[in-house]
Design goal:
20 strands; binds magnesium ion; 8-stranded antiparallel sheet; 2 domains; mainly beta; 12% helix; Jelly Rolls; 2 helices
Length: 286
């Protein structure tokens, strides 16, 4: 008896729920008739681009997004700076590399790449402006994204942390306090040159500072010197990554890089629409 009542109650509930859902569907179809899913012809045809893609390689990611993926080249894991020219003139202690005498420069060279690097401004801060926690990451040994204690000090906008030096400020200032660790995740596209060394396509950079996008596919105007306008010079397809000595004991840790390249595909046939057994090239479709 009790069972029977429960079933009846459930049936009544389902019936009412069905009515409510029916009303909702009717209202939605009136307000948005384009998305009427009862029109089966709208979903039967499939667009195919005709490209035969290579299968993306599998890459095992790190435990966290700060840890190097399986295909990364480790540039500094806290042990030594053997991967760098001049590394013996910087101090490595407690898993951290501290700016010493002169820039360091990777022995290996890289083209288009994804670079992860962590850095910490000196604590307590000393100096002002460009003299406060200044270093820099140079892609291809030439193009600087600024490292500076922009938590403690002000400077010209296109010289602060995350700036492409003298070209653009970062979109926002995502600095952590001196002594805390900052992260740059950088996606770098090399400049390309024609056979006569004129510029074919410029360099681009996207950068994420502590999880915040600060540069979004920014087009570089050339190199980043202090004393003259930027200019491009063909220095080859690849170059080292270097870290600046600007006289401040900035600390670095956990540096790794991955070379990146676009996935390849072959246009095996023209794009077409498949509808059952019928295939219609896009160009011929009215
Ligand atoms: Mg600098």
């Amino acid at each position: 008896m009790i069972m029977s009542q429960r079933i009846q109650c459930n049936d009544i509930y389902r019936t009412r729920l069905g009515r409510v859902l029916g009303y909702c569907a009717a209202i939605l179809s009136l307000s948005n008739p384009v998305h009427d899913i009862s029109d089966s012809s709208a979903t039967a045809a499939e667009y195919l681009n005709g490209v035969k893609w290579e299968v993306p390689a599998k890459v095992s990611p790190g435990k966290t997004n700060a840890d190097p993926p399986a295909d990364a080249t480790i540039l500094f894991d806290g042990k030594n700076l053997d991967a760098w020219h001049n590394g013996n003139r910087w101090k490595v202690t407690d898993g951290v590399a501290i700016v010493g005498q002169g820039e360091i420069r990777t022995k290996e060279e890289f083209g288009d790449c994804q670079l992860h690097i962590e850095w910490s401004a000196p604590n307590p801060p000393t100096g002002q402006g460009q003299g406060c926690g200044n270093s820099g990451i140079f892609l291809m040994g030439t193009y600087e994204i600024q490292v500076l204690d922009s938590y403690s000090t002000d400077t010209y906008a296109d010289g602060q942390a995350g700036a492409i030096y003298k070209q653009t400020p970062p979109m926002v200032n995502a600095m952590r306090a001196p002594g805390e660790w900052n992260t740059y995740d950088i996606i770098w596209t090399c400049p390309r040159f024609n056979d006569d060394n004129t510029l074919k396509t410029p360099a681009y950079i996207t950068a994420i500072h502590n999880g915040v996008v600060i540069l979004n596919h920014f087009e570089l105007k050339g190199d980043t010197p202090f004393h003259r306008p930027p200019q491009y010079e063909n220095k080859g397809d690849k170059g080292p990554i270097s870290i600046q000595d600007h006289g401040n004991p900035v600390r670095f840790r956990n540096i790794w890089v991955r070379e990146i390249k676009p996935i390849q595909g072959e246009q095996a046939r023209e794009p077409f629409i498949r509808d059952g057994d019928k295939e219609t090239p896009i160009a011929a479709k009215k």
